[in-house]
Amino acid sequence: MADAAITIRDLTMAYGSFVLQRDLNFTVQKGDIFVIMGGSGCGKSTLLRHLIGLKAPARGQVLYGTQDFWKMDASGRDRINRKCGILYQSGALWSSMTLAENVAVPLRAYTRLDKKTIGELASFKLSLVGLAGFEAFYPSQISGGMKKRAGLARAIALDPELLFFDEPSAGLDPVSARNLDDLILELKESMGATVVLVTHELASIYAIANNSVFLDAGSKTMLATGDPKRLLRESDNETVVNFLSRGTGNRELQSI
Ligand SMILES: Nc1ncnc2c1ncn2[C@@H]1O[C@H](COP(=O)(O)OP(=O)(O)OP(=O)(O)O)[C@@H](O)[C@H]1O
């Protein structure tokens, strides 16, 4: 498909002989905010690891555009990796580095920009996430929500086409979580990026996602893909509706 950012084809995910999920087929379209949903332990984080090239499929393909990631040579994979910005659950900042130094890490690794330009770019990225003036702070000196935002500044350091988040709002209070959702939307709009995130926060899912896949631990396969709001209204799968309606079975978005 012309506008496909990532296509998953007949994917089986396994750790050794332990199969987590099989027969996964879905497409993340360019410009999507795509959410990976499902109950605890169904394999959401593992699927994310497949999408960012950290884990190879037991079977099946991960295509970027039309190219099979695992059939590319090292330089092809590196090219793809460079297009990806990743924000891990904890923000995963280096505690011994200031925020500016943290954001500079990918710039130093992947560009030949001089020190001054890297410093300016790091400040600019921090300002985009509302952390102007916090360049010289260490992670231990800022709040959880600010750490997430600093992690986000680092994830967007190289202007990625694809942004990946693992439980971005985990551990945040509802207001900070809402602010982070708004920031993700804002950055997506201004950068024109495609966003893939793992989350079980229904409020986030309905606020920002336009596409999704639902993984089921019991049957070890996906039960649905598409716009979560549409799935709530139209899915004929009880497990999916149950999850999306917080267990009430009510298909009205307002009541959730
Ligand atoms: N490196 C690993 N080696 C072996 N098994 C693993 C590994 N990582 C995860 N698992 C197992 O795979 C299953 C799915 O884990 P994963 O973290 O992908 O699920 P999840 O849906 O993201 O879970 P949660 O919602 O609880 O974060 C779990 O049973 C977990 O124990």
Automatic annotation (TrEMBL):
Per the record, the domain of life is: Bacteria
Q: Which PROSITE patterns match?
A: ABC_TRANSPORTER_1, ABC_TRANSPORTER_2
Listed InterPro entries: AAA+_ATPase (IPR003593), ABC_transporter-like_ATP-bd (IPR003439), ABC_transporter-like_CS (IPR017871), P-loop_NTPase (IPR027417)
One GO MF annotation is: ATP binding
Question: Ranges for the ABC transporter domain?
Answer: 6-244
Question: Which UniProt key words apply to this protein?
Answer: ATP-binding, Nucleotide-binding, Transport
PANTHER family in the record: PROTEIN TRIGALACTOSYLDIACYLGLYCEROL 3, CHLOROPLASTIC
Q: What is this protein called?
A: Polyamine ABC transporter ATP-binding protein
